[in-house]
Amino acid sequence: MKKTWYKEGIVYQIYPRSFKDSNNDGIGDLRGIIEKLDYLKDLGISIVWLSPIYESPLDDNGYDISDYYKILDEYGTMDDFKELLEGLHNRGIALIMDLVVNHTSDEHPWFIESRKSKENPYRDYYIWREGKDDKKPNKWGSFFGGSAWELDEATGEYYLHLFSKKQPDLNWDNPKVREEVKKILTFWLDLGVDGFRCDVINIISKAEGLPEGKWKPAIRGSEHYVNGPKVHEYLHELYLDVLGKYNCFTVGESVFITPEISLDYTAEWREELSMLFQFDHMNSDCYFVKWFARKFKPVRLKKAMTKWQYGVNGKGWNTLYFENHDQPRSIPRFGSLKYREESGKMLATYLYFQQGTPFIYQGQEIGMTNANFTNLSQYRDIESLNIYRIATKKLLWSKHKTLKRLARVSRDNARTPMQWNDDVNGGFSEATPWIETNSNYSTINVKNDLKNKNSILKYYQKLIALRKKYEIIVYGDFIEHYSNDRKIVCYERNYEDQKLVLVANFTKRDVFQKSPYDLTKAKLLLNNYDDDDRVLKPYQVKVYLFKK
Ligand code: ISL
Ligand code: CA
Questions:
Q1: Interval between CA 326 and ligand 1 midpoint (Å)
Q2: What was the pLDDT predicted at 292?
Q3: Which of 265, 303, 344, 470 sits 20 to 30 Å CA-CA off 430?
Q4: Is the C-beta atom of 341 inside 6 A of ligand 1?
Q5: What per-residue confidence (pLDDT) applies to 39?
Q6: Residue 178 pLDDT more than 90?
Q7: 50 - beta bridge partners?
Q8: Cα of 161 to ligand 1 centre, how many Å?
């Protein structure tokens, strides 16, 4: 397997709107990130992924871009961006940008032109269709609920939007669109960025004729664009014409995908993408989509994680993540609020000792928890607001039930301001933030965690340092033991003359430690408790190193 910097790297995702506000307007910004560069360096991460900072009307917090070459005013200027990039590079940290090119904003000049007339030169940049007998062209659904089609008055035709109606899908079959994407990539790479996180990249190619979609538990119509007919051709074209000429890396967000299919994107010889995000483990507490809840079971999480380890290791490259800006916080989800510190450390260890590139989402490293919103007015996320409307009006869920569901799964759970200290608004801003701060900032914050030597943050620093020190954590193989055990986790990694063994308790009760090896013969590398005996305390995790 080829060794590369991005396999060895540790990524930290910044959601700029909620990271740090430098000018007290309640909105995080680039200068706020610049203030925190040393924090990132001390954490030990080596790559930053910046969620979108481009000009946008913010219908979907920047995942609706109206100018790919301009920084949103609220976030700063191009000079601020250059200073940020230089500040990161000076500290040995790479930067990857979010590339959102399945769709643009409806306020992008291309779409403004496109909707003007059927003859407009930009018409074919997007996907327009006539209605069928006064109805929508087909029954495809949007990821955010409702139809994926919107009627546009000017020409009487419908345009496709797999996300909000302010996010029209680009027509990748138009070579001009692909040239525009290459121009965008080249522009940012020439500025010095080190790669891209490619938003919903496996849905850019739609089946010819846009055939009717079958109703499925997932999104209606998705069988006609998930890993669509030309997706590999288009990604390979981007690689040949642009990406392959730079020492950059790409991580593609991919929905409804299997390990086998993922290799078609990431096997090195394919020359497409470096790695993918997948969602299987995100379904360990729901069915297909998060709105259909089921109880979290550790064994489901283990099965999903292990499936990807076995399916991809040695052939492609995995990503390791539990959190991002679209997911609720992982501690209340997979761990326990009662054992916040213990389970936060255990989850990190279980995840980041597997093979793949680690992704840490801002606030995860201090064990931030869900927003606890109880009122609809507290939510900002377009998906949450849409779903609330649909659930209460169409599915006739009660308001109470819908709000309870949102409190558990809403994307806003991850978007509350970063908690820096116990000053007003957690030190994020002196002004009222665009979204409420979690009131637990007085105890859960960076300042406290830096003072306390047993904090989650200190533990993350230690874990990251270990990943940098031991190649086995990056490149070792992965073998799981006791995969059907509902309480414990145990896996090993092997590399050259070394073996790592991880044992962990995924429950709130003491359990007896199991291991296929005599652990008394190994060196204890990491432990989230002080004691090391044969009983695993609630959410205890230990990692041992053997020299063969
Ligand atoms: O968040 C989800 C469900 O709650 C996902 O279905 C999500 O919409 C999907 O993973 C795509 O996400 C990405 O593209 C969206 C954007 O809203 C997300 O923030 C982004 O991560 C549209 O650009
Ligand atoms: Ca600001």
A1: 6
A2: 84
A3: 344
A4: no
A5: 98
A6: yes
A7: 14, 97
A8: 13
How far apart are alpha carbons 51 and 378 in whole angstroms? 22
pLDDT tens, residue by residue, 468-500 = 999 999 999 999 999 999 999 999 999 999 999
Cα–Cα–Cα angle for 218, 222, 225, nearest 5°? 155
| Parallel, antiparallel or unpaired: strands 357-361 and 11-14 | parallel
Torsion of CA 290, 292, 298, 300, to 10 degrees: -90
Atom number, ligand 1, closest to the C-alpha of residue 409:
4
Measured between alpha carbons, how far is 452 from 442 in angstroms, rounded to an integer?
15
478-547 folds as Immunoglobulin-like (2.60.40)
d(C-alpha 125, C-alpha 117), whole Å: 13
Q: Is the pLDDT of residue 467 over 80?
A: yes
Mean pLDDT of 331-335: 98
Q: To test the ligand 1 pocket, which listed residue (18, 59, 63, 291) has its Cβ within 8 A of the most ligand atoms?
A: 63
Own/partner pairs, 514-517, CB within 8 angstroms, 24+ separation: 514/481, 514/482, 514/485, 514/488, 514/490, 515/481, 515/490, 516/481, 516/490, 516/492, 517/492, 517/544, 517/546
Whether 360 and 460 have beta carbons less than 8 Å apart is answered as: yes
pLDDT for res 126 = 98
Q: Which tokens belong to 380?
A: 């900002």
Check if 163 has its Cβ closer than 6 Å to any atom of ligand 1: yes
169 ligand 1 Cβ < 6 A: no
pLDDT above 90: residue 215: no
CATH topology of domain 5-104+175-200+250-371+414-463: TIM Barrel (3.20.20)
Residue 242 has pLDDT above 90, yes or no: yes
Atom of ligand 1 nearest to the CA of 325: 19
496: CB partners within 8 A, 6+ apart: 472
Cα separations (Å) of 161 from 40, 170, 285? Answer: 37, 9, 28
pLDDT at 209: 95
CA quadruple 502, 507, 512, 516: dihedral sign: negative
Determine the Cα–Cα distance for residues 123 and 103; give it in Å rounded to an integer: 14
CA distance 75 to 96: 17
Between 231-241 and 175-191, two packed helices, what is the crossing angle to 10 degrees? 40
Domain assignments of the chain as residue spans, ordered by start: 5-104+175-200+250-371+414-463, 109-160, 372-409, 478-547
Q: Which residue has the tokens 């938003």?
A: 199
Enter the CATH code of domain 109-160.
3.90.400.10
Q: Is the pLDDT of residue 128 over 80?
A: yes
Min mean pLDDT across 27-36, 60-69, 102-111, 382-391 is at: 382-391
Residue ID of nearest Cα to ligand 1 atom 5:
326
pLDDT surpassing 80 at residue 544: yes
